[in-house]
Amino acid sequence: MTLVRFQGFGATSLEAEVSGDEHDPAILLVHGAGQTRAVWSVVVEGLVQAGRRVINLDLRGHGGSDWPESGAYDLDAHVGDLRAVLAQLGSRPVVVAATLGGWIAALALETDAANLAAGLVLVDMPVGADPETAKRIGERLRQQPSQGDARWDPRAVAHLDIEVVRQRLLRAAPALVLPTQVVRGGIGWVGQAASSIEFDALLPNAEVVEVEDADLLVVTDRTEAFLGRLLDFLERKQPRSAAEFRAGSDARTLRDAMGCFATGVTIVTACDAQGTPIGLTANSFTSVSLDPPLLLVCIANTAGTAPILREASHFGVNVLQTSQQPASNRFAGKGEDRFAATPWTPGETGVPLLDGSLVSFECRRHAVHDGGDHFILVGKVVRAAFEPRRDPLLYFRGKYRRLHFT
Ligand SMILES: Cc1cc2nc3c(=O)[nH]c(=O)nc-3n(C[C@H](O)[C@H](O)[C@H](O)COP(=O)(O)O)c2cc1C
C-alpha cells in the first residue's frame, strides 16, 4: 500500500491509499458522508485479492485530504475534485461510491462518462428524500463510531439541499452511459423508493441490486454480501485481460502460465564422485508409477549440479515443509555453502537426506530422458521416510505459500 496525493479542485490536495498491482484494472473508491476511506478496508482487501488495483480516496475535509480553511464543501467543489483525480489516473477506473460519494461520482461523470471511467457502482445513494428523512439520515450518519483515526471536518457534512441534489441527479442519469450497478439495502433506500426508482429508470446501462439485512449501510453491515455482488459486476463488466502464451512468445510468459500450477518444493540431492554432497531446489517433482515405484524431477541442463545428477547411481528427493523455506532459497541461490548451513544425514544408499523434511525419497536412477533444455530424471524409490504431521511449503505464481484453510 502506498499513499498518493492528487491535485484536487482549486489548490486542494487529496490523499489516497493505493494498493494492488499497477497493471491490474483500477477501482476508485469514494466514501460517503460521515466516513473516511477507512470504511472500505475489508473491501480493498477483497478487491486486491481478486486482482484489482485500488485507489481509496479521502474526500476533501476528510481523513488525510486537505480541509480547506474557507470551508468550500459544496457539491461542485467535490465534483471538481473527483474529475481532477480521474484525469490524473493512468487508466479509466470503475468508480465505486457510497452515499454522498455516489452523488459526487454521478455528477462528476455527467460529462464525458465513458472517457473518464470504465464503470460506476453507486452504493446506498439516496435520491431525494423528504426533509424529515434527510435529517434523520444525517443524524444517524453523524453518530456513527469513527473507524480508527477516521476524522472529518464537521462543516463537510453540513447543509446540502437534498431537493436540489435530487433534481441534479435526475438530470445527470441519462448521461451516465457506462456500465452501472446500483446497490441498495442500507438507509439510503429507506423512504425514498419513488425517486430512486425514477433515477434507476433513467440510467442507460444499469443493473439494480438489493442487499438484504443491512441496518444503516450495506458497506459496513453486509460487507461480504456487498463484495460478492461487486466482484460479480466487475468480472462481467471489467474482465481482467487474460495473458496468453503462444509458441514463439517469450519464455517469461510461459513461466507465468506454468506458475498457475501450485506445487510443493523439493531439494534434489546426490553425491559427486568424491562423495561430496550436492543438491538443488526443484518443484518439477511428479509421482510417476506405483508399481514399479517411480518418480521424476526435471533438471535444467545448465544447472551446475546437472552433470552429477545425470550420472549419479542414486539421488534423494526431499519434500520441504514450511520451516525449510530458507533451505529452499539456499539450494536455489549462488555462493552459500548449501550443506554447511543445512542439517542432513546420509541415507541407506548414501544420498544426503535433509533433516526435518516432510518426506525424503531415496531413489536409484531408473532412466534419464531428454526434455528440451531440461532432462527428466526418473528414479525408482528405494525408501521413503515421512513425517505426517508437518505442513508443506508450497510454491505458486513465483511465491512461497502455506496451506490456508478457511
Ligand atoms: C521454487 C523453485 C523451484 C525450482 N525448480 C527447479 C526445477 O524443477 N528444476 C531445475 O532445474 N531448477 C529449478 N529451480 C532453480 C534451481 O534451484 C536453481 O537454478 C539453482 O541455482 C540451481 O543450482 P545449481 O546451478 O547449483 O545446480 C527452482 C528454483 C526454485 C526457487
TrEMBL record:
InterPro entries: AB_hydrolase_1, AB_hydrolase_fold, Flavin_Rdtase-like_dom, NADH-dep_flavin_reductase, Split_barrel_FMN-bd. It comes from the Bacteria. Pfam families: Abhydrolase_1, Flavin_Reduct. PANTHER family: FLAVIN REDUCTASE, FMN REDUCTASE (NADH) RUTF. GO terms for molecular function: FMN binding; riboflavin reductase (NADPH) activity. Residues 258-402 form the Flavin reductase like domain. This is Flavin reductase (DIM6/NTAB) family NADH-FMN oxidoreductase RutF. The lineage of its organism: Bacteria, Pseudomonadati, Pseudomonadota, Alphaproteobacteria, Sphingomonadales. Transmembrane segments: none annotated. Keywords: Oxidoreductase.
